[in-house]
Structures are given as structure tokens and as C-alpha cells.
Amino acid sequence: MEDNVLARFAQALASGSIRVIDLSQPLNAATAVIQLPPELGKSWPFHIEEISHYDSRGPAWYWNNFSCGEHTGTHFDAPVHWVSGKDYPRNATDSIPVEKFVAPACVIDVSREVAADPDFLLTPKRVEEWERQHGRIPAGSWVLMRTDWSKRTDAAAFLNMKEDGSHVPGPHPDLVPFLAKERNVIGWGSEGVGTDAGQAFRFEPPFPCHSIMHGSNKFGLASLTNLDKLPPTGAILITPPLKIVNGSGSPCRVLALISA
User: Fold this and answer.
1) Is residue 75 annotated as part of the catalytic site, yes or no?
2) CB of 144 closer than 8 Å to CB of 105
3) Is the pTM of the predicted complex or chain greater than 0.85?
């Protein structure tokens, strides 16, 4: 490594020739939380409670307590989150090697298809078409599916629950092993409340992004936003979760670095 590479990086940030894009949704009481069948355990919604605000409870300081499930809002999924990834070493939020939290990203724009079909599934064929234009997905890259789903700011529209479950776009069951095995990606990111499609409980295997990605010791990012501000290739993601001991994931301030 050149001696001055970090200095040049800092200068590029200061000059604006590298832009920082926030891919995270705000956390508040209105943040949508994944809905599971009533017989299954429930994730807490985000809740914040003031401790003091420059008052008798603390005259010079303002702070809060908060509570939520690990997979609330924009969040990181660790391999230990799914039964298929439970036996890997260093598979939790506190033990994943930190260098894994900085990686390049490929952004596949299917927003037009999703506007016409909320159950749209991204297939290997569609990804190969993208590769013919932008080049092969490099090993160790994030693959982000741009759907513009994050523009649905109403929680009900975002979750899009019907009598037969949620209707949200995601990866086709055939795409997940293609990315994990044939492209050796670091993980998959989506704009929906989770990394899988809304109807993925009907797939074989069920929830393939969770089952196969985590079963391949890969990661997930969910509830991303601002993917329309990223180029198809060239962005670098910064994705560290909270260092929760044996954590299955955590809310995450996902940042992307792009050339101005």
C-alpha cells in the first residue's frame, strides 16, 4: 500500500470528490417491523424513552433509552441469524472479521419491473443481462436490488400485507445459490423489510435468501434506501452492525462511498 493512500482518501472526502450516501432509513416509532404468523415470536417495535433533557433528571445532559428487535429498520443480518448458518465460526455481530464491513457493491435496477409487479423476483437470467452491460459481479461484492420500494413511506404500503401474506419483491430462489456459489458475493441487500421476497415462505426452500445466503456464511442488508443515488458499479459500502455479543444482526447505519 502506498504510504499516502489514506491521506489522499481523506483529501478526496474533504474536497467532495468522494461523496457519502446514507442508505439507512430513520428509526422511530413508525418504523415498519416484519409481521410473522401469530404463533411465532414477535420482534419489538422501536421504542424510545427520554431519560433527561437538561432538566431535574439531568440538568446538563439529554439522553434516551431505546428498545427494538435486532432486525428493525435498516439492518444487518449475520449468518447466525438462520439455522443454516449457526455452525460457522465468527458468525455473529461481535465476531465477524471487521474487514468484512467494507466492500464494493453492484446495484441492479429493477424499479420499473417492480412498479408493474410488487411480487417481482430477480432471476439469474436478469442478472446475467446486467453483467453483459456492466461486467461480471466481482467476488466479495454486495449485490443490491434497487426497487424504489423504500419510497413507500407509509408502513402499511411498505409491508404490503394481504390475506395471503406480504407482497414485496425479492430474489428468485434460483438466484440466491447463483450469487452465493457462482459469484461468491459477500451478501445481498434489498429495500424491503427483509432480504427475502414477501411470498418467500412458499418457496423451496422457504426464505431462500436467509437459508442459502446465511448457509453460505454470507450477510444480508434490509430496508435500504437511496439506492437510486448509486451507480451500477463503483460504490463502496460501510456496514458495521452494533457489536452485540452473539448478535444475530442489528440496526445499521449503512453508508456508500461513490465518486462525485
Assistant:
1) no
2) yes
3) yes
**What's at 227, amino acid-wise?**
L
**pLDDT tens-digit profile of 9-67?**
999 999 999 999 999 999 999 999 998 888 999 999 999 999 999 999 999 999 999 99
Would you put residue 251 in left (φ > 0), alpha (ψ -120 to 50) or beta? beta
Phi and psi torsions of 228, nearest 5°: -70, -10
Look at phi and psi of residue 162 and say left if phi exceeds 0, alpha if psi is from -120 to 50, else beta: beta
SS (H, E, C) the chain: CCCCHHHHHHHHHHHCCEEEEECECCCCCCCCCCCCCCCCCCCCCCEEEEEEEEECCEEEEEEEEEECCCCCCCEEECHHHCHHHCCCCCCCCCCCCHHHHEEEEEEEECHHHHHHCCCCEECHHHHHHHHHHHCCCCCCCEEEEECCHHHCCCHHHHHCEECCEECCCEECCCHHHHHHHHCCCCEEECCCCCCCCCCHHHCCCCCHHHHHHHHCCCEEEECECCHHHCCCCCEEEECCCCCCCCCCEEECCCEEEEEC
From the centroid of its chain, how far is CA 249? 10
Catalytic residue among 47, 53, 75, 81: 81
